[in-house]
Amino acid sequence: MSEPHPVSNDRLHGRPFPNADSLCETCGYRLQGLPPEGNCPECGTAIQASHPDHRPGLLWQQRQTLRTWWTTNWCVMMHPKQSFRRMNTGGSSDEEFMFFITNGFVASMIYIISWFGVVRRYGGPPVGTESLPFCCSVFPAIAVLTFLEAIGITHFSGKRGWRIPFRKSFRLCAYCSAGWFPGVLLLVTITLPTPKEVISGWIDLLPTGLPVPTWFLFWAGVFAVTVLPFEILSSIGMRQIRYANAP
Ligand SMILES: [Zn+2]
After folding, report:
1. Which of 55, 83, 110, 178 could pair with 184 in a Cys bridge, judged by C-beta atoms 3.0 to 4.6 Å apart?
2. In terms of residue numbers, what domain contains 49?
3. For residue 176, how far is its CA from the centre of ligand 1 (angstroms)?
4. How far is the CA of 152 from the centre of ligand 1 (A)?
5. Residues 1 and 102 both lie in one domain
6. What is the pLDDT of residues 107-148, one digit of tens each?
7. What is the pLDDT of residue 122?
8. Is 106 inside any structural domain?
9. CA 41 to ligand 1 centroid distance, Å
């Protein structure tokens, strides 16, 4: 996938390549005016390796079905580098919103189940209408975290001289939402089947005397761990799109 693509014609969708927007995807060198069959003068990578033809899009970007939803999640989790190297960074934003909303909804459901697991064991608020505010806040919390991550990536990109405007970083984060699943599954794995005495031992290690109950501290701590896969995917992905050439 990372090998130079033999493009006999230096035009794609009517746009010449390299053009005024073309960067070497390896080092960010401006490619305008260079022969398409040559190499980047800065890093030596073949110029054709930066051709937008190498970004046909994730499977979900090409077609939105239950199958491509699942396979896109799987590929992003298992092969993040290759997946984000394929991601189309131009065009419509509708697909990524659908993907993000679906993932956010499913992940929220799993979070809520795990919450009830903790509450049942440790005497938090009763499972009923009192839990409604929490249940309703999970998806917005995921959405806010995703937006903050996208803003953070754009900010970081600006400092490093990369080319990741917010529109592109949000797309990346929307697909990184695949990382919520291992996180929430970990959460469920920890909170539901583990014997109460074992988790009680962990909770006893937490500081007391704080304004929040320890069972909530425990849940919040595990939540922080569940964010890790999402964060790791984001950091891998931003390096794959930092100089991306959109079709
Ligand atoms: Zn280069």
Report:
1. 110
2. 1-54
3. 26
4. 25
5. no
6. 988 888 777 776 666 665 555 666 677 778 889 988 999 999
7. 63
8. yes
9. 7
Distance from residue 162's CA to the centre of ligand 1 (Å): 13
Q: Token digits for 215?
A: 């069972």
* The pair of three-digit structure tokens given for residue 167, joined into one six-digit string: 């529109």
Closest among 96, 99, 5, 107 to 52, alpha carbons compared: 5
- Residues 137 and 36 grouped into a single domain: no
How far apart are the C-alpha atoms of 103 and 216, rounded to whole Å?
Answer: 24
The residues, ordered by sequence, that sit 6+ positions from 200 with a Cβ below 8 Å of its Cβ are none
User: Are 80 and 190 part of one and the same domain?
Assistant: yes
Q: How far, in Å, is the centroid of ligand 1 from the Cα of 141?
A: 39
Calpha distance 33→30 (Å, rounded): 9
Cis ω for the linkage preceding 18 (within 30 of 0) = yes
Band of pLDDT at residue 241, cut at 50, 70 and 90: very high
